[in-house]
């Protein structure tokens, strides 16, 4: 305990050459107990609980290991300095640590075999390392307890491991269990970043080669191990991909093999029925011959039918030779009636007699056309005579006098101009002015009528409000005896009906309401704002437990208060208030939470306010600056805040909503009507409000008395203007009628009459031209008829010749048909002897080819030397095997695709991880260099796999970048330590051991490095550090530092 008071520095003067005495094990156990007691005392004195971490080295006990006969070292859980001259066995402790944690001898850089570490003259060496298992996430604490002791025994022939629990009992001797413990606690003793031995430290300080620096970076971050594993997975993926391709080929071969066997099975089944099939083919062949003859006969019959139809048509055409005359008649009558022409044409085709009659009619029509032509010619002569008479009449009228008519026209024109001037200059402006004046008076009257209606409406509103206030005053006074009256005169009766329904079993759970009856606001300062925020509808509402109770309550409300139902909410009743600890707002200074300001006597009512208004998320305050501060900036917004209410001295509140939807609204507040009202104050407020309304009512009466007389005056002016307007409009209409009469006067105009007669002559000339045109058209139609008559006669002769040829062909076809019938009968007789008729889609050639193929197979014999059942069993066996292998193939393909996607994802992650670690390493390195006023940089080239350290010491030219190899010993040592600490900041490990970190440095840099390493231990209490140095150590007393001084080496 005295050593603990002296900065927990333990000086060990241990003899390197001590002999193993008989009581060595006893003294070792005693020291172990003392060490455990010392560690527990240290924790209790320092009060640091966060130093506990599984995987830290508690103690190291070496027996006959290198230069140590029996050495026990109890380490601090934070910072340890091992001080001793060269040869005192510092590096041996580090080598024992590496070997004891499962590494091979090569990792120590001292030997290739573990037996070389046995002390000279001894045959067995033992390493006992106790690691902590009392921190977070211990390894099997029920089995091992607070600590795990790893024992490695080395003999000349071999060695073995043993793992003990905290009580010294051996739990296991398997090396796999040791690896499992180290992996669980993330202990990597073979990683030089965590355990840097003497040789590696010196080589690293001397060279600082960029490629080795980069390899150290990869090993520290375990990127090299991850990359190695990923490459192994990549090779595994390629091998499996090749295996998948081979499997796919095998599956295809198996599928083809099954297909071959199935074809053999088909051939075997077909061979069994081959003779029967051949017989059926023979029958099918003969019936196909019958079908060929039938098809041929049917084709001949179709030709005969076709020729018969054509003969009938030609005979009909020959017998109806007068059809030419009928068509001629149709042409001549086409300009009269198209329907009559079609009907006549169909009648001509029905009967030869009708054709002859219509032929006579056609001759008669031709005569009529000729008569019509003569009639048109006579009409032409008559029109010419009328034209001559009109010309004579025009000559006679041209000699009359037009002078009197022109004088009357001039006089009427002057009178008309005078009337128009009076209308435009005198009467029309007066009428328009009177209309405008009348419209203006009408609009003024309408506006004043609207004002009167508005004043009367406001009077009614004031009177209604005064009546309502009188009722409220009476209700408030009566509420002294019954507080429920403040919710309406119907409320007591409503509550009685609810109690009656509950007693009769109509309600399973009594409704909770009105909600305001269960609420209180002790602080009167907030009462107005809280009641306005909650709202009268919510305060008057009732809450039901289920839909059935809601329907019952609605029936009661329909009975008691039909016109004004309170709001009904249906929600499941809870026996206690919601736990809103995770959703409520923690009110900042100067604010109050709405939920804390409300006292509620029923949990259902309180839960209803939480659900509907979210009272646990609303804050109230008296200051605008506080509200703006906690809502306008994201960093200041309390968690779960929905809005802030700012109380105002006036009748308005301000509502602030936090970012990201920052905004502010104002809301009007009213005097409280329901929450803990003072009857006298409430009556006084209502009487004051009533007085204001009465004053407003008297003002309205005064305004109404001023407006009504103005309305009567406007009526008189409107009547006067309307009478004058009617008088002027009458005068204007009289003049307009006179103007219309003068404008409608007709004057005799001989010149115009003469022009009309000339126009009539022109019309008669046009009629003559039209008559000539019609005569020409009729003559053209007659000529066309004659041409078509000749063409039809020629067609008749041609069809007659064609008919004779067709009759000759028919005779030839009939002879062929007779021969075909004979062949058909013979084929049917032969086929019926073979068997019944078989329907087939094959041709005769197809059947002959199949017969030849079947005969060849019969001559060849069975296709395979197996029976049908055996072959079917073989196919089923192969199909099952194929299905099994296909399932394996599908699973393998899914696994390979999944592995490929996983590899791509992890290679991408490694790339990003390298960049992240590079940035973190560089920033940490630059920060540590700045502690010594150095400047420097780490240049990582991932493509070339180099890490170059560039350092500019202080007092040097900042423009010159110095490589690490150009630095002095002290500067290089400090840069190296800075680099190592930077690597430590990128990774995490239970412990870090560094051997001879100050071997090449001067005193100043050694002091800075020691202080830097000490600060690293101070800032990372959850890590354990061990620093080995051959130089003496003087540090300020610190509770977290322990110095272990090894005895002087024996030089004899």
Write a concise keyword list for the protein shown above.
single chain, 1052 residues, alpha/beta, Rossmann fold, Helix Hairpins, 5-stranded parallel β-sheet, 26 helices, flat, ATP-binding, RecF/RecN/SMC_N, DNA recombination
Short description:
The chain is α/β, with parallel strands linked by helices and 1052 residues long.
Map the helices and strands.
Layout: H1 2-5, H2 24-46, E1 57-65, E2 68-74, E3 79-83, H3 90-100, E4 124-132, H4 141-144, E5 147-155, E6 159-164, E7 170-172, H5 175-184, E8 195-196, H6 198-207, H7 210-221, H8 223-272, H9 274-319, H10 323-333, H11 338-350, H12 352-397, H13 403-478, H14 491-503, E9 519-520, H15 527-534, H16 536-539, E10 542-544, H17 547-560, E11 568-570, E12 591-593, H18 594-597, E13 599-600, H19 603-613, E14 618-621, H20 624-632, E15 643-646, E16 652-657, E17 663-668, H21 679-743, H22 750-834, H23 844-860, H24 868-930, E18 935-941, E19 946-952, H25 969-986, E20 991-995, H26 1003-1019, E21 1024-1029, E22 1041-1045
Parallel strand pairs: 3-21, 3-22, 8-20, 10-11, 14-15, 20-21
Antiparallel strand pairs: 1-2, 1-4, 4-5, 5-6, 6-7, 9-13, 12-14, 15-16, 16-17, 18-19
Biased composition (Polar residues): 1-14
Organism: Glossina brevipalpis
Subcellular location: Chromosome; Nucleus
């Amino acid at each position: 305990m005295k050593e603990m008071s002296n900065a927990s520095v333990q000086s060990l003067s241990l003899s390197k050459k001590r002999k193993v005495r008989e009581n060595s094990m006893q003294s070792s156990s005693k020291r172990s107990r003392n060490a455990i007691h010392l560690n527990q005392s240290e924790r209790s004195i320092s009060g640091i609980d966060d130093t506990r971490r599984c995987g830290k080295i508690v103690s190291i006990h070496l027996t006959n290991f290198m230069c140590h006969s029996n050495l026990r070292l109890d380490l601090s859980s934070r910072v340890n300095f091992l001080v001793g001259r060269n040869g005192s066995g510092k590096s041996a402790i580090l080598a024992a640590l590496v070997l004891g944690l499962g590494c091979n001898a090569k990792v120590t850089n001292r030997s290739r075999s573990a037996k070389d570490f046995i002390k000279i003259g001894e045959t067995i060496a033992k390493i006992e390392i106790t690691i902590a298992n009392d921190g977070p996430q211990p390894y099997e604490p029920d089995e091992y307890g607070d600590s795990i002791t790893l024992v490695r025994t080395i003999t000349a022939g071999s060695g073995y491991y043993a793992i003990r629990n905290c009580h010294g009992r051996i739990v296991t001797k398997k090396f796999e269990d040791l690896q499992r413990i180290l992996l669980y606690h993330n202990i990597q003793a073979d990683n030089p970043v965590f355990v840097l031995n003497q040789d590696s430290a010196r080589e690293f300080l001397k060279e600082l080669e960029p490629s080795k620096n980069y390899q150290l970076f990869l090993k520290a971050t375990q990127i090299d191990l991850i990359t190695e594993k990923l490459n192994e997975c990549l090779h595994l993926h390629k091998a499996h991909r090749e295996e998948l391709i081979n499997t796919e080929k095998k599956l295809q071969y198996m599928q083809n093999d099954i297909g071959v066997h199935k074809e053999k099975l088909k051939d075997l089944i077909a061979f069994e029925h081959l003779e029967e099939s051949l017989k059926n083919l023979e029958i099918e062949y003969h019936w196909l011959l019958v079908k060929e003859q039938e098809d041929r006969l049917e084709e001949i019959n179709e030709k005969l039918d076709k020729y018969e139809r054509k003969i009938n048509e030609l005979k009909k055409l020959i017998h109806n030779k007068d059809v030419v005359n009928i068509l001629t008649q149709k042409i001549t009558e086409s300009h009269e009636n198209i329907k009559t022409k079609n009907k006549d044409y169909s009648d001509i085709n029905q009967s030869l007699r009708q054709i002859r009659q219509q032929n006579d009619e056609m001759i008669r029509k031709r005569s009529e056309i000729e008569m019509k032509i003569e009639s048109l010619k006579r009409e032409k002569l008559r029109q010419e005579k009328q034209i001559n008479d009109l010309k004579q009449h025009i000559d006679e009228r041209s000699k009359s006098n037009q002078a009197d008519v022109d004088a009357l026209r001039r006089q009427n024109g002057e009178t008309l101009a005078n009337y128009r001037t009076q209308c435009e200059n005198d009467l029309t402006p007066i009428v328009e002015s009177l209309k405008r004046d009348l419209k203006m008076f009408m609009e003024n009257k309408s506006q004043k009528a609207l004002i009167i209606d508005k004043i009367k409406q406001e009077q009614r509103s004031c009177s209604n409000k005064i009546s309502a206030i009188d009722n409220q005053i009476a209700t408030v006074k009566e509420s002294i005896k019954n507080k429920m009256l403040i919710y309406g005169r119907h409320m007591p009766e409503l509550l009685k009906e609810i109690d009656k329904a509950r007693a009769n079993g109509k309600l399973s759970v009594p409704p909770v309401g009105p909600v305001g009856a269960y609420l209180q606001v002790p602080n009167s300062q907030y009462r107005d704002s809280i009641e306005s925020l909650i709202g009268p509808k919510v305060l008057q509402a009732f809450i039901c437990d289920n839909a059935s109770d809601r329907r019952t309550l609605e029936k009661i409300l329909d009975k008691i208060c039909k016109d004004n139902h309170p709001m009904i909410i249906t929600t499941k009743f809870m026996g206690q208030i919601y736990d809103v600890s995770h959703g409520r707002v923690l009110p900042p200074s100067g604010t109050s939470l709405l939920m804390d300001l409300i006292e509620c006597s029923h949990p259902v009512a309180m839960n209803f306010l939480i659900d509907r208004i979210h009272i646990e998320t609303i804050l109230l305050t008296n200051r605008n600056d506080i509200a703006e501060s906690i809502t306008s900036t994201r960093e200041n917004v309390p968690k779960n805040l929905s809005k802030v209410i700012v109380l105002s001295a006036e009748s308005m509140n301000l509502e602030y909503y936090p970012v990201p939807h920052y905004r502010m609204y104002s809301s009007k507040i009213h005097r409280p009507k329901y929450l803990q009202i003072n009857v006298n104050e409430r009556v006084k407020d209502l009487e004051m409000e009533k007085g204001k309304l009465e004053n407003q009512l008297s003002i309205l009466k005064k305004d109404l008395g001023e407006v009504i007389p103005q309305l009567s005056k406007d009526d008189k002016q409107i009547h006067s203007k309307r009478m004058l307007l009617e008088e002027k409009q009458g005068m204007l209409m009289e003049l307009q009628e006179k103007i219309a009469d003068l404008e409608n006067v007709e004057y005799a105009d001989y010149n115009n009459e003469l022009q009309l007669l000339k126009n009539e002559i022109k019309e008669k000339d046009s009629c003559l031209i039209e008559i000539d045109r019609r005569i020409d058209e009729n003559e053209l139609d007659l000529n066309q008829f004659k041409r078509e008559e000749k063409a039809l006669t020629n067609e008749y002769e041609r069809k007659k010749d064609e008919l004779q040829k067709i009759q000759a062909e028919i005779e030839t076809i009939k002879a062929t048909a007779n021969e075909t019938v004979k062949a058909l009968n013979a084929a049917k007789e032969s086929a019926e002897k073979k068997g019944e008729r078989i329907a087939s889609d094959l041709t005769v050639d197809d059947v002959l080819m199949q017969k030849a193929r079947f005969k060849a197979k019969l001559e060849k014999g069975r296709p395979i030397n197996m029976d049908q059942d055996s072959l079917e069993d073989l196919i089923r066996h192969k199909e099952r095997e194929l299905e099994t292998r296909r399932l394996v193939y599908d699973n393998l393909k899914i696994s390979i695709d999944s592995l490929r996607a996983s590899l791509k994802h992890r290679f991408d992650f490694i790339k990003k991880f390298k960049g992240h670690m590079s940035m973190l390493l560089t920033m940490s390195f630059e920060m540590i260099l700045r502690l010594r006023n150095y400047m420097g940089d780490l240049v990582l080239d991932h493509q070339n796999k180099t890490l170059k350290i560039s350092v500019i010491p202080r007092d040097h030219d900042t423009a010159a970048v110095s490589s690490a190899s150009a630095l002095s010993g002290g500067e290089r040592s400090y840069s190296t330590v800075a680099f190592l600490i930077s690597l430590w900041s990128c990774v995490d490990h239970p412990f870090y051991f560094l051997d001879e970190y100050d071997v090449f440095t001067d005193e100043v840099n050694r002091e800075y490095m020691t202080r830097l390493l000490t600060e690293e231990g101070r800032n990372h209490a959850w890590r354990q550090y061990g620093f080995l140095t051959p130089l003496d150590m003087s540090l300020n007393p610190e509770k977290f530092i322990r110095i272990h001084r090894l005895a002087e080496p024996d030089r004899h």
